[in-house]
Amino acid sequence: MSDRKVIIIGSGPAGLTAALYTARANLKPLLIEGLEAGGQLMLTTMVENWPGFRDGIMGPDLMTEMKAQAERFGTDIIRGDVMSVDLRNRPFTIRLGDGKTMTADSLIIATGASARWLEIGSDRKLSGHGVSTCATCDGYFFRGKPIAVAGGGDSAMEEAIYLTRFATKVTVIHRRDSLRASKIMQDKAFANPKIEFIWDSEIADISDVARGEVTGIVVRNLKTGTLTQVPLDGVFIAIGHTPNTELFRGQIELDETGYIVTRDGSRTSVPGVFAAGDVQDHIYRQAVTAAGSGCMAAIDAERYLEGLSVAVEATDAAAYSTGPQA
Amino acid sequence: MASDKIKIFTDSTFDAEIKNGVTLVDFWAEWCGPCLRLAPTVDALASEYDGRVTVAKMNVDENPNVPGRFMIRGIPTLLIFKNGQLADQIVGLAAKEEIARKLDQQLVRADNAD
To answer: Chain A closest CA to B70's CA: distance in Å?
Structure first.
C-alpha cells in the first residue's frame, strides 16, 4: 500500500496548479514545497502578464493565493526538501531532508529551474558580498552605487530596470549585439537614462575575492578579445536558468541540457511519473504556461491512476472467479 | 508567528549579545521573499537549539551598521558566531539540516575547548 495516490514535488505555478486539480479530483495530493518554496515568482515584483489582473499582481502575492487555493481543496503541503527518489520500484519512494520517506502511486515533478551562475569561480565566492541572482532581494544594498547586470533577456531587463531605483548606474553586459528580451521590455530599458549597455561582451572575472567584496569586473569583448576593467560595487546575474533535475538523473529521460523529456502531454519516460513547468520547458518558461502544464500533469496523473484501479479490479475479479474452482 | 525563543538584535545590542557561546544571526528584511521563506526554518532551529545556541534576527532596514561591518550585500544571510568571533556563514536559502550541521560543528568545538 502506498502512502499517497499522488505526490507533487515543487510549489511554483506548475506544482500548485497540479495540486489544485488533483485535490479537486479527490486524489488527496501531498505537495512537497522544496527549498525555493513558491518558485521564481517569489523573486519578482509586479507580474503584468498573468491573465485576470489588469493592473498586475505582485509575484509573492500571486503565489500566496495559489497556495491557499490548493489547500482549500484539500492539498496537504509540507515544507522541506526532497533528498532522493526511487522511481525504479513501485510505489515510488521519496526521501526528505529530515530522513522521512513516503511512497506514491504517481508522481508529478514540478521542481522548476534555478538561476544560472556565470561559473567563473569568483561569482560564487562573492555571492552575498556583491554578486547576486535576485535583484528584489539584494538591490537595496546598492543604493547610490554603480552596478552591472549580466544577461539580455526579459529577466535581465526587469532586474536592470528595478535596480535603477537604487543604483546610480546599471551597466548591462550582454554576449550579443541585440537583446533577447521582449519589445516592451527593451523599450523600457532603452528609455531608462540610468541603464547603459556593453554589447558582444561577457564578464570574465569579478574582483575582489580576497577582500570579500565587489570592487569591479573584467569585461571581455567576444569579438575582439579585448579585456576592460570596470570599477563597480555589485553584479546581478540574469543569464537564464538550469532545470532542477539532479534528483532524477539516471532514472528518467533528460535531454542534453538536463530538462525532463515529456511526450504525449506531461508523460515522462517512467509510466506514472509526470512533469510540469520549467523543469521540462526551456522554450516558453512563463508562469501561465507552467500553470497550464501543471493542469495537464494533474489530468494525466488522474487518468493513469484510473487505469491502475481498473487493472487492479480486473485482477481481483479474475482471482475471485477462478479462485473457488481451483 | 516568530518563536519566543528568537532574540531580536540591533546595531547597539549586537556586540554584547554575541560575546558568549554560539550565536546564529539571521539578517533579513520584510521585502525579501527568500528571507520570509527561511524564517520558519530559523524559528524551528531556535526551539531545537534552545539553551545551546542563541538564535537571533536582525532587520537590515533598521540596522545598517552590523550588516555593513560584515560586508553583507545579500539576504538572507546567516552568520554563526562563537564567543564573539565570526565562525561560519550561509548565504541564501539553506535546508534546516545544513544549518544544524554547521551549528553542531561549532558546538562540538566549544565543548572540546572547555
So the answer is: 9
* CB contact A77 to B (< 8 Å): no
Strands B22-28 and B77-82: antiparallel
Distance from CA of B18 to the nearest CA of A (A): 21
C-alpha cell at A290: 507552467
Grid-cell match 537571533, residue found: B56
Which residues on neighbouring strands pair with residue B81, listed in sequence order?
Answer: B23, B86
Enter the pTM of the model.
0.84
Hey, is the C-beta of B29 within 8 angstroms of any chain A C-beta?
yes
Is the ipTM higher than 0.95? The answer is no
- Which active-site residues of A does the annotation give? 134, 137-138
Identify whether the C-beta of residue A295 lies closer than 8 Å to the C-beta of residue A18: yes
Whether residue A15 lies within 8 A of chain B, CB to CB, comes out as no
Residues in B touching A34 (Cβ below 8 Å): none
Rounded-to-integer distance, Cα A164 and Cα B1, Å: 34
Domain A4-115+241-321 has CATH 3.50.50.60: yes
Q: Which helix (H) or strand (E) holds A13?
A: helix A13-24
Name the residue range of residue B62's domain.
Answer: 7-108
Residues of B in contact with A59 (CB under 8 A): 33
Q: Is residue B113 part of a domain?
A: no
Q: How many residues does chain B have?
A: 114
The answer to whether A116 and A242 have CB atoms below 8 angstroms apart is yes
Do the domains spanning A4-115+241-321 and A122-237 agree at the CATH topology level?
A: yes
| A13-63 residue pLDDT tens | 999 999 999 999 999 999 999 989 999 998 888 888 999 999 999 998 999
Domain ranges for chain A, please list them.
4-115+241-321, 122-237
Helix axes B33-48, A59-72, angle to 10 degrees: 60
Q: Is B58 a catalytic residue?
A: no
Contact at CB, A130 and B96, closer than 8 angstroms: no
Tell me, what CATH number does B41's domain have? 3.40.30.10
